[in-house]
Amino acid sequence: MSEAPDDAAPLVLSVERLRKTYGDTAAVEDVSFAVRRHELVGLLGPNGAGKTTTINMVLGVLEPSAGSIAIDGIDLARDRARALARTNFAAVYAPLPGNLTVLQNLRFFGRIYAVDALESRIERLLERFRIAQFRHTKCGLLSSGEQTRVSLAKALLNDPTLLLLDEPTASLDPATAQDLREAIRAIARETNGGILWTSHNMYEVEEVCDRVLFLSHGRILLEGDPRELPAQHGAASLEELFIRVAREPLDFNTGVR
Ligand SMILES: Nc1ncnc2c1ncn2[C@@H]1O[C@H](COP(=O)(O)OP(=O)(O)OP(=O)(O)O)[C@@H](O)[C@H]1O
């Protein structure tokens, strides 16, 4: 756990009244939140809660039905290219091309992002994620944990102000996951960015996140410090709170549907 981020730190992500509907189904409904510089925010919720839909709207992959998104103060709808140049992401469902080596992949993406001094940037990231020995190995041949580390290196190539991580430790053994959590915490501390992170591992969320948002049925039901929220709501642990929120798809504070 790190020092609490400064409440006055600039917003690296600001989401206002975001909504995404598919026909009569609202995947995301009236969601507002922010991520500050140096902050690690967990986006939690049961399967189908709307986490990936939210992340995909922030990444510009999905167009919101309503609402606005600003990255580092830049409105995504109005100035898309400039806003997206400040983001990056890593997700297990978006692996890097398997027929390219680690180096070829990092060079390819580095050129797309127009990274300055690309070769030295790549070398630093290969060291940081302990993947230098795989530089000439095709990504498709790496273990899932090794691929995750390459995806994280790729996600940091452009030194993003906003880093989105969708279950970054899902395929990792406990020791590798622990190393990775430490690396990600260090990134939040040392860079000028903030991180939005999804995970189903409540132990990890308590250890890593400065703040969490509980999403259920497309709405934010709870928000706060993952170490304080359980006691505030009479739950013994974050996991117990998560299960209650997931099973009670109603206004958690008032009990009103
Ligand atoms: N293209 C689509 N068309 C119709 N419904 C969709 C579409 N994409 C997502 N949904 C629905 O929107 C809801 C939110 O889905 P989403 O993938 O954002 O959930 P999630 O919180 O990421 O879940 P998980 O933890 O299972 O990955 C789900 O009910 C899903 O079925």
From TrEMBL:
Q: Name one Pfam family in it.
A: ABC_tran
A GO molecular-function descriptor: ATP binding
Tell me the SMART domains matching this sequence.
AAA
Origin, by domain of life? Bacteria
* InterPro entries cross-referenced by the UniProt entry: AAA+_ATPase, ABC_transporter-like_ATP-bd, ABC_transporter-like_CS, ABC_transporter_ATP-binding, P-loop_NTPase
- CDD domains given in the database record: ABC_DR_subfamily_A
Give the family this protein belongs to, as stated in its UniProt record: Belongs to the ABC transporter superfamily.
Q: What is this protein called?
A: ABC transporter ATP-binding protein
Q: What is the organism field in this record?
A: Tahibacter soli
